[in-house]
Structure prediction request, 792 residues.
Amino acid sequence: MSEKLSATAKVYRRRGLFMVLLAAVMLEATTLTQFFFARRDLKNEAELRAKNELMVSSLKIESIMENVETATKNMAWVMTEHLDDTDELYDFFHQLLFTNPDIADVAMAFSPSYYPQMGYWFEPSSSRSEGGEIVDEEIGSEQHDYLSMPWFKKVFDSGIGSWSEPYFDNSGGKSMVVTYAEPVYDLDGKMAAVLGTDVSLSFLSSLVENVRLYPNSFSKITSREGRLLAASPDSVVSGKALRQEAEMSDTGWTMSIVIPQDEVFESINRLGHRVILLQILGLLLLWFILSRTIKEQAKLRQVEASKEKIESELKIASEIQMSMLPKIFPPFPERTDLDLAAAMYPAKEVGGDLYDFFIKEERLFFCIGDVSGKGVPASLLMAVTRSLFRTVSAHEKSPQRIVSAINDSMTGTNENNMFVTFFCGVLDLRTGHLRYCNAGHNAPFILKGTVGALPVEPNLPIGVMPGMNFKEQETDLSFDDSIFLYTDGLTEAEDADHRLFGEERVKDLLSIRRTAEEHLEALETAMTKFVGTAPQSDDLTMLFIHYMNKIDPEESERHLILHNDIQQIPQLADFVETIADEMKIEQSLAMGINLALEEAVTNVIMYAYPKGSDGLVDIEAIMRKKSLEFIITDSGIPFDPTQVPVADTTLGVEERPVGGLGIFLVRNIMDTVNYRRSDDGKNILSMTKNI
Amino acid sequence: MLVSITKKNQEVTAKLNGRLDTPAAQNVAEQLEPLKEDAAGTIILDCKELSYISSSGLRIFLSLRKAAAEKGGKVIVRSINNEIRSVFQMTGFLNLFQIED
Prediction:
């Protein structure tokens, strides 16, 4: 048993493990999916943030650069009118620097020898000093040959204003600068000079430093030619990184933001770790609970299985017991005075209903009972009750004594305080006299034209109290009366709404004329229909007894009484003829019967009574379906014709005695011939012919 | 029960008509008793109209047969019906008498 248990437990444990693994796989799949989407969203968000930042920064840079460009262009345009007075130039320069704080310095490089008085190079300029004051200076010289400088040359040659590549300015602010150069034309439309404004790129550094989306992200700005203009400090990324770039149209600069991927995903990674840890803990807990449950279930199943086994064995026992109850119907096919049927419909559980009946010495003993409770103890008690009924009634004719005897022997051993409601009856089939004793069972119905309850003493059920004084009752049944016994499984059958089948329905059904078996079928059908889908809660047992005229309708009698006068013999011929007509016996057989009867009666007339005395011969003919019996009774001297020696019919003429043929014929013609001398001094000869 | 007897040379014929039961047998026995005189010849018992016979009747037949046996004559039983034939069968009379249709 324990080996088997451990084996099944192993199977269940494996099943539990499988379930945990399945749960793990499902859990991980959903987690990973979530993780994947969360990462994607985080990445998108980071990129969006970077783009926004780039856009904002670009706009800032571009607006500065555009302001400078516009201011320079305006001034170049204004300067056309003011080329006459070189002294005025510085005023304009001051104005420009004053209104445009982004411009670090301004210079106007004239074409060679534009003002002959100023020499070959002439480049007045104004720049901001470290103290914030504006310093004017003419810087054009052979040493400072602006004519060869790219910002000048490019504009001078093309006549179109443009931004220079950033460069390190040694002359002015001593920092990284970028110059916007715009041609200045004179009134004749001839290019007079190139106006250049320098913008210090130090603002880019502070701008770049402020762009910090993630702790270790960084940004930088590069020129069109790839020169680094500004970058965050620590601009090194190890591992994968997200990169976003934006190019500014005017300057052709590119700003880029680089974010280390680890930082983008840091929160989700941290969350992921926690989730996985929690899941593992959860799964372990699940496995623990499952294996505990499974183990308990296995144990439970084991218990259940052994319980089922016990129950099925007991059910078999109860079925064996049940099978001992009379179950063949009609139980007494040869009896014409009794129509009896019994039926038991056990509920699913082993139950404790019982019934029994048998005939002994022309008395029908019957009983019905219902053991309290259900299950095994009930069915055992039912078996005990039934066998006690059989045992006790073998030598008791009184129902009261039968019930008392069962009660006494049961209360002696009944330790479970169970009891049996029991009804026992003894019906004398010859007289219809019914004696009965009720031990707490519901009153049977009695059918005497109308249906009513048989009056019963309630009494206590069997098994409650030893030495209990049960009361016996009696009644007389007439021919065609019936009695119907049942257990409360019938009247207390419930439908789905807990309504009871009730006694009225039973009464109505019983009032219809049916055979015993038909009655039980009708009741069962009606009850099943009434109950519907509700489960049968109790055993149902029914016993229907229909007491009928004991004379077979197919059996009848004829009587003939003769004096001991041989001249009365011809009356026998008429007697037999009447019977033969009635029984439709053919002529030749009738004649044989006539002969046998004549011989037997002649015998009585001739020899039973002393000569001259008057005596009677009583002839009774009993006509049955398949036989004809004659009972010849006389009060003469004892004489047993069956003891007369058999005539030897093989002898020859000389040896044959003339007499002795009469009895010989009787014995040859009839199938059985019996003689008995009755206690009151009568010769009774019975002879039967099978038809 | 009617009995008519006719004699013709050595042949006596007794016609039996009706039921030969016990009460009738006494009378019939008396009527047939003279036939024993002719037992040396042939006695014919014509049973064409005999419907029934009891053991008393059989007894008469047998005593005639015994007389014939004594005197060297014979008894012919003629035209018995099936019922009587089965009684003859039962009692072994078929072997004792000459039966004619």
